[in-house]
Design a protein that fits this description.
By secondary structure, the protein is an alpha+beta fold. It has one domain: SH3 type barrels (Roll), CATH 2.30.30. A 5-stranded antiparallel sheet has the order 3-2-1-4-5. Strand 2 and strand 3 form a beta hairpin. The radius of gyration is 12 Å and the shape is globular. The termini are far apart.
Length: 78
């Protein structure tokens, strides 16, 4: 089953794609074809699903989500 996940942008946009880290620390390049937001920059948080960036996440929202994941014992929610 696929789930949308929180990702941190780690690279600049190139050719309609951006490099991100997921919460497991894996780096991947995802498409911005379905993205609805301002151009993502390194350090930004986004929600991605099945290789597509979907929406930006405000830093406060990302921190709240990470706090909840930490409370649930998610080891990679740093």
């Amino acid at each position: 089953m696929c789930v949308s996940r929180l990702h941190r942008v780690v690279g600049a946009v190139q050719n309609g794609r951006v490099t991100v880290h997921d919460l497991d620390g894996r780096e991947r390049s995802i498409s911005l074809l379905a993205y609805d937001g301002p151009r993502p920059e390194p350090g930004d948080w986004i929600v991605a699903h099945s290789g597509y960036a979907l929406t930006p996440v405000e830093p406060e929202e990302a921190e709240a989500a990470l706090s909840e994941l930490r409370a649930l014992g998610e080891p990679n929610a740093e």
